[in-house]
Amino acid sequence: MTAPLAKASGQSRSRSEKAAAEREIELDEARDGLLRRAMEADRLLLAVMQCSLSLIGFGFTIYQIFSDAAARTGLARPSPLARLVGLTLLILGLILLSGGLWGRLSIKQDHDARWTRLGLDAGDISHSPVANSPVLVVGGLLFLVAALALAAILFRVADGATLVPWGSGAPRL
Fold it and tell me: Is the whole-model pTM more than 0.85?
């Protein structure tokens, strides 16, 4: 009678070990899938940042080139068209960058929710590439620099004036 009991307990132990091993494999696959998705989101944000940096850089450069040309020729103000084109490119770059950052942050929130739902260790979240993404930090810094460039064009800080709005007829300093 003890032999069947030993055999039954051995089978249940092996079943529980198999279930635990299968659960561990499922968790590893889920963790790997989430990390892959986070890395894909970082690559996408890098591509968005490249495009927005080009737009922001061209916008500011176009404005600055025409401002310098106007100053050299003795004109009081740079061409309004150059200012408009520069502002348009810069604003398009900011819109593109903010959309990319928003998408990346929403993926981060979804990633954290799935991570918790799977029952993974909370300490693992802080070490995941989603939580500590340097791409996200650099994107935020790029947004700040672009916003400062936009303010420099709008308030003519780059021309030497101090916070004079674009449309005002105030004399330049």
Answer: no
